[in-house]
């Protein structure tokens, strides 16, 4: 204001000295404009203060730790005449009952979720609307959301609203009063953009498959939906959380055959289903274990972790790990916590619950982790399961365990998965893919980043480097060098001399080739020297099948193919070197040398060097685990003949060599925590490879020369 007044004063002085270019402003008009300008300026200042000052009213009462105690929550009385929401609109879909414009655009494509402050609702007589208040499970759920990237304490930015009223278990609720409490929420607006979590819907005698609390247009994340109550693309089907998940730790078990083929562990099974299971037990004997509650144990937490069969007591859920398949039958409700226990045990669930909407079925492919059988075909269950191939059962066991770890293991996992599904609906262009939802992460250890920094097609230059590991077979070494040097794309040849007791040949004796040849002498005789990232390697590729690798730079590419198999009698993996139609490993390939040298997990490198074996298998494990892809076998070569080798010479001729290669597969699978190798039934051959054409027309006429 001082500057403005000074400017006006200066203009006044100027006009008094000469002709006025602008008519002199009357005093009353000048005062009017000064006052108007002052009001505008004060308004701008006030707007700025409110913009950056902490928000008041609703947003000031954010979901913080000191507001999670129901004892400290403010008391809210519900008048008898309080409005009650409508029952619920079964026709609701995201485009009819959800305001997506409230979510808006944001660079992270992430919805913002607001949690109402905790309040304790009571009726006019002071009786709470819930007999349990805030459960531990719901508190964990809200805490996880408030700690996530979805959460906002600014109600004006929120896309989705979550009441702090706990409706997980309908048995603890007073239906009418809970509905009135929801309608009193300041942003309720007929439930628009509100999300309720419920795991135990309905009550006796009919046990409705959706929450009975009237909820207007609110979305429902429900734990027992049927095809009649589930609003596809609007509601979210969630699992019934098992409290044993937090109290019992079951170590992951390797997939494979188990002691029992089928196991039933539920205690509240309808008598007709139990009679059918007992009949199956009589027909199939020890292959089926039928458990029930223990009548000789006192009721309590301890008895919930026990199951009995003919007086024998079993620990639950540990016993589930002893079976290949575990039965999950419907009870009074469609959703059963037993499903979560079965998945945790890595047992393939056999689900018999007609019209049940499986948890997160909007994004999860349950065919990969379970068997769903109509209830009327319970009598055929054993025959149906016996027709599933062993390898498929093992994959389903692995997938079942991963489903539990990723989506069932905690209230946090359940809550954030639910929000991610809703997020994908609102921002479909940034949604997670089928593979992201259903494929387990291939890297089971945390210290390795993906090495796929290469473009899809590497540049034409400068070719590849051939690395040859040798000990003292000079004649064979020189022959290999001579043949490799004929490859046009060869940029450099590096010989790794692994013999510390003998010097390499003199320079004059080496073959004369058209590319640089470098000899590196190692300090120790170790197989891992083959994969060391030597400074002399300046190219991106180090392999024979260079042109094939150019098309698939994230794959191992090699000639001899090998296979890993599961030995059902021995209960472990086996190495197979016979030529078959299937391949899961190649013995030469494009080497991810840096990762092998510096990022190989566990003690694998030490194991390889100590046994002088399996360095190629370790490389196959490493690359398959990171990329999730199978190797590529190129055109087979003729069997290499070593003129200097004897029957007692060479690693591969040792009697223990093949036995050790089976042992190392089991060792590596244990270290990686999974079996990353992928089985394929194809190979890459050059065009015209076996066609009856003149050799000069073929790009690779010398295939099989080594």
UniProtKB/TrEMBL annotation:
<dbReference type="GO" id="GO:0005794">
    <property type="term" value="C:Golgi apparatus"/>
</dbReference>
<protein>
    <recommendedName>
        <fullName>Exostosin-2</fullName>
        <ecNumber>2.4.1.224</ecNumber>
    </recommendedName>
</protein>
<comment type="subunit">
    <text>Part of the heparan sulfate polymerase, a dimeric complex composed of EXT1 and EXT2. Could also form homooligomeric complexes. Interacts with NDST1. Interacts with GALNT5.</text>
</comment>
<keyword id="KW-0735">Signal-anchor</keyword>
<keyword id="KW-0175">Coiled coil</keyword>
<keyword id="KW-0812">Transmembrane</keyword>
<dbReference type="Pfam" id="PF09258">
    <property type="entry name" value="Glyco_transf_64"/>
</dbReference>
<dbReference type="GO" id="GO:0046872">
    <property type="term" value="F:metal ion binding"/>
</dbReference>
<dbReference type="GO" id="GO:0050508">
    <property type="term" value="F:glucuronosyl-N-acetylglucosaminyl-proteoglycan 4-alpha-N-acetylglucosaminyltransferase activity"/>
</dbReference>
<feature type="domain" description="Glycosyl transferase 64">
    <location>
        <begin position="464"/>
        <end position="689"/>
    </location>
</feature>
<keyword id="KW-0808">Transferase</keyword>
<keyword id="KW-0333">Golgi apparatus</keyword>
<dbReference type="InterPro" id="IPR004263">
    <property type="entry name" value="Exostosin"/>
</dbReference>
<dbReference type="GO" id="GO:0015012">
    <property type="term" value="P:heparan sulfate proteoglycan biosynthetic process"/>
</dbReference>
<comment type="pathway">
    <text>Protein modification; protein glycosylation.</text>
</comment>
<dbReference type="InterPro" id="IPR029044">
    <property type="entry name" value="Nucleotide-diphossugar_trans"/>
</dbReference>
<keyword id="KW-0325">Glycoprotein</keyword>
<keyword id="KW-1015">Disulfide bond</keyword>
<keyword id="KW-0256">Endoplasmic reticulum</keyword>
<dbReference type="GO" id="GO:0015020">
    <property type="term" value="F:glucuronosyltransferase activity"/>
</dbReference>
<keyword id="KW-0472">Membrane</keyword>
<feature type="domain" description="Exostosin GT47">
    <location>
        <begin position="108"/>
        <end position="387"/>
    </location>
</feature>
<keyword id="KW-0479">Metal-binding</keyword>
<dbReference type="GO" id="GO:0005789">
    <property type="term" value="C:endoplasmic reticulum membrane"/>
</dbReference>
<dbReference type="Pfam" id="PF03016">
    <property type="entry name" value="Exostosin_GT47"/>
</dbReference>
<comment type="similarity">
    <text>Belongs to the glycosyltransferase 47 family.</text>
</comment>
<dbReference type="InterPro" id="IPR040911">
    <property type="entry name" value="Exostosin_GT47"/>
</dbReference>
<comment type="function">
    <text>Glycosyltransferase forming with EXT1 the heterodimeric heparan sulfate polymerase which catalyzes the elongation of the heparan sulfate glycan backbone. Glycan backbone extension consists in the alternating transfer of (1-&gt;4)-beta-D-GlcA and (1-&gt;4)-alpha-D-GlcNAc residues from their respective UDP-sugar donors.</text>
</comment>
<keyword id="KW-0328">Glycosyltransferase</keyword>
<dbReference type="InterPro" id="IPR015338">
    <property type="entry name" value="GT64_dom"/>
</dbReference>
<keyword id="KW-0464">Manganese</keyword>
<keyword id="KW-1133">Transmembrane helix</keyword>
<feature type="transmembrane region" description="Helical">
    <location>
        <begin position="31"/>
        <end position="53"/>
    </location>
</feature>
<feature type="coiled-coil region">
    <location>
        <begin position="263"/>
        <end position="290"/>
    </location>
</feature>
């Amino acid at each position: 204001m001082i500057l403005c007044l000074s400017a006006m004063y200066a203009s006044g002085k100027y006009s008094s000295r000469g002709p006025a270019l602008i008519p002199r402003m009357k005093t009353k008009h000048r005062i009017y404009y000064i006052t108007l300008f002052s009001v505008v300026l004060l308004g701008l200042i006030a707007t700025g203060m409110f913009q950056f000052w902490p928000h008041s009213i609703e947003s000031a009462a954010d979901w913080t730790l000191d507001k999670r105690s129901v004892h400290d929550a403010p008391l809210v009385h519900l008048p008898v005449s309080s409005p009650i929401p409508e029952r619920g609109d079964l026709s609701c879909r995201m485009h009819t009952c959800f305001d997506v414009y409230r979510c808006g655009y944001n660079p992270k494509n992430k919805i913002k979720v607001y949690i109402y402050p905790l309040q304790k609702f009571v009726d006019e007589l002071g009786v709470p609307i819930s007999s349990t208040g805030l459960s531990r499970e719901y508190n964990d759920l809200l805490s996880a959301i408030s700690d996530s990237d979805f959460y906002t304490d600014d109600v004006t930015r929120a896309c989705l609203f979550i009441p702090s009223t706990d409706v997980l278990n309908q048995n603890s609720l007073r239906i009418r009063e809970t509905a009135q409490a929801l309608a009193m929420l300041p942003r309720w607006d007929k439930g628009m953009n509100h999300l309720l979590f419920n795991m135990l819907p309905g009550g006796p005698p009919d046990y409705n498959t959706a929450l009975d609390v009237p909820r207007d247009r609110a979305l429902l994340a429900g734990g027992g939906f049927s095809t009649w109550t589930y609003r596809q693309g609007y509601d979210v089907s969630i699992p019934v959380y098992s409290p044993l998940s937090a109290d019992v730790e079951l170590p992951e078990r390797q997939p494979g055959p188990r002691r029992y083929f089928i196991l039933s562990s539920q205690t509240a099974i309808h008598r007709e289903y139990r009679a059918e299971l007992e009949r199956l037990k009589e027909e199939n004997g020890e292959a089926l274990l039928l458990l029930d509650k223990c009548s000789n144990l006192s009721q309590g937490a301890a008895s919930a972790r026990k199951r009995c069969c003919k007086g024998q007591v079993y620990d639950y859920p540990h016993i589930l790990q002893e079976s290949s398949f575990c039965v999950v039958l419907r009870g009074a409700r469609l959703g059963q916590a037993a499903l979560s226990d079965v998945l945790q045990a890595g047992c393939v669930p056999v689900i018999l619950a007609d019209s049940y909407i499986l948890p997160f079925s909007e994004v999860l492919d349950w065919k990969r982790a379970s068997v769903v059988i109509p209830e009327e075909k319970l009598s055929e269950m054993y025959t149906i399961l016996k027709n599933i191939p062993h390898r498929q059962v093992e994959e389903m066991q692995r997938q079942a365990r991963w489903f539990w770890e990723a989506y069932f293991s905690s209230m946090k996992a359940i809550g954030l998965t639910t929000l991610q599904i809703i997020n994908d609906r609102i921002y479909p262009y940034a949604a997670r893919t089928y593979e992201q939802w259903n494929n387990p992460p291939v890297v089971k250890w945390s210290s390795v980043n993906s090495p796929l920094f290469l473009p899809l097609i590497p540049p034409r230059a400068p070719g590849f480097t051939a690395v040859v590991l040798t000990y003292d077979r000079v004649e064979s070494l020189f022959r290999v060098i001579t043949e490799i040097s004929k490859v046009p794309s060869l940029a450099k040849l590096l010989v790794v001399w692994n013999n510390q007791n003998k010097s390499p040949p003199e320079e004059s004796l080496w073959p004369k080739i058209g590319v640089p040849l470098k000899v590196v002498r190692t300090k120790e005789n170790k197989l891992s020297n083959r994969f060391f990232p030597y400074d002399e390697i300046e190219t991106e590729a180090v392999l024979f099948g260079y042109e094939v690798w150019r098309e698939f730079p994230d794959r191992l590419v090699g000639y001899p193919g090998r296979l890993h198999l599961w030995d059902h009698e021995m209960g472990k993996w086996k190495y197979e070197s016979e030529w078959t139609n299937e391949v899961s490993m190649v013995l030469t390939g494009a080497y991810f040398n840096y990762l092998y040298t510096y990022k190989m997990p566990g003690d694998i490198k030490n194991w390889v060097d100590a046994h002088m074996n399996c360095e190629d298998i370790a490389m196959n494990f490493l690359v398959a685990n990171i990329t999730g892809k199978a190797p590529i076998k190129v055109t087979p070569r003729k069997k290499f003949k070593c003129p200097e080798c004897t029957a007692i010479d060479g690693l591969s001729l040792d009697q223990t060599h093949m036995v050790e290669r089976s042992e190392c597969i089991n060792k590596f699978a244990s270290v990686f925590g999974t079996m990353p190798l992928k089985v394929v039934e194809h190979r890459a051959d050059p065009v015209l490879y076996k066609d009856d054409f003149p050799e000069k027309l073929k790009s690779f006429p010398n295939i099989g020369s080594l």
